[in-house]
Every structure is written in C-alpha cells, then in structure tokens.
Amino acid sequence: MITARVGVATEKGPRRPLNADACAHVVHGDRLALAVVDGTGSTPEVADFARTAAATAAYVAARRTPVHGVLAAHELCADLATDYPSPSGAIVVATSEPGGEWRVAWAGDCMAWKLDPTGQVRRCTDPHTLGERLRSEGTPEDQARKVDHQLTNGLGRIDRYGLDAVEIAAAPVLVLTSDGFDLAADAMATLLRQHPDDPQTAAEALVKTAPRRNRDDVVVLVAHHPEPHTTTTHEEVT
After folding, report:
1. In angstroms, rounded to a whole number, what is the distance separating the alpha carbons of residues 77 and 87?
2. Contact present, 133 and 194 (Cβ < 8 Å)
C-alpha cells in the first residue's frame, strides 16, 4: 500500500457562520483518491452533507473511478421532485493512476490544478458557472465575472446535466480547490516550488497567500503523485 503525501488547509469565510467546504482522501492499494466539496449554503446540514459527500466520493473513487465517486456523492442529495435539491454543492474528485497520471471528475466550480515537471501550474477543469458559459460565448470579462458565483451544475443536478471528466498526464503534484480560492497560476507555482516535499506547508501557504475577494469559505488540498514523477509529456484527453 502506498503512503499518501497530502496536505490540506481550509478557512471559514469572513462572514460565514461556519465552514461548509470539506475534503477527504483515501488510499486503496496503490491508488490515492481525493475529493473536495463546496457545500451550497452555511447551515449545519450543509456542512455535514459536504463532509459526508467528500468522504463518500473519495472512498468509492479509490476502488473504482472519480466518475463513480461523484455519482455516489450525488446519490446523497438526488431529488427528482425539485429542480434544485438541497443540500447540494460543487465537487471535484481525483485518483492517481499508473505512469504519474491522474483522473479527475467534477460538477460545479471546484477546480483541479496540476504542477507539471517544468514547474508550471495549469488549471485542468472548467467551472460549471454562468460566468464561464458567458465567456465561452464571447461575453466581455467584466460582465461574465459578475455571475461567476452562479452554478449551472452541481451535485444535486447531475442526473439532469451530467458531469465532466479528464485524464491528466505528467503531473507530480495535483491541487484541488473550492471556488473560494482565488490565486493566479504563476503565484501558485511559486509557492508549490518553494515547498516541494511538504504538501501540508504548501497548502497552508496557498490559503494564506490567496486574496479574499469574496466572503466564501476556502479549502485547498495538495497531493503528490504516489509514483516518482516522469518527464512524459503527452496531451490531456477529455
């Protein structure tokens, strides 16, 4: 069995009554599974749901795939009687794969970032938000940014809108974040390079350094791939 090298840091939003972001990681044999959930709202019920959903997704993904993990978490809140099931939230799930690769699945605006062997950070997921949809349609950035907080998909709506998944190559370090995290990729890369062997310190530095431009909770999970990184550089597959 592998040893997980994972660091986690989280902070409650400045005006939130409690933190409704959650994360989990599970090791099963030679696979590491990771999950981040951003609960919609700030009630105790939502916070409990986020923790349960993250734990469920990581447990299932470790034994199957990130897609199965997301679907398992979806079953905790699925409700066809309403268009907006509650509690709900956004989710991103990842598993380590042979050859230094990762698989990632998501619904909502939680995100995955990779640190590649050249030391550069790249976002690997596209958030399911109205703002992102407007950008893809050519809407000016200043207008799209105003609705970045409006989700077009999430855990409670996967049975209607599905989910997305991607395979990530050549990524010795993977970072999962909730949407409360707002830091440029170059700044992320600098901090990750400063702490190459300490994912916990790296996660704490990322949360501490990221500007708090909104009142949202934030969680950051930094994971090193269980295998020594390689220099393989083939394209991501969606």
Report:
1. 6
2. no
Kindly report the length of the chain: 238
Between 7 and 16, residue with greater pLDDT: 7
Q: How much of the chain is helix, strand and coil, in % rounded to 5? A: 30, 30, 40
Contact 160, 151 (CB under 8 A): no
Q: What are the residues facing 177 on neighbouring strands? A: 111, 220
Q: Are 144 and 79 in contact (CB under 8 A)?
A: no
For residue 116, give the nearest of 198, 225, 4, 23 by alpha carbon: 225
Q: What is the pLDDT of residues 165-203, one digit of tens each?
A: 999 998 999 999 999 999 999 999 999 999 999 999 999
Q: Is residue 127 reached through a cis peptide bond, with omega within 30 degrees of 0 on the bond before it?
A: no
Closest by CA to 95, choosing from 61, 52, 60, is 61
- The CA distance from 104 to 111, in Å, is 10
Give the sheet arrangement for strand 111-115, strand by strand.
6-11, 218-224, 173-177, 111-115, 121-123
Helices (H) and strands (E) in the chain, counts: 7, 10
Q: Which amino acid is at 108?
A: G
Tokens encoding 213: 């431009």
Per-residue pLDDT tens digits for 64-88: 999 999 999 999 999 988 988 999 9
Mapping DSSP to helix (H, G, I), strand (E, B) and coil, where does residue 13 land? coil
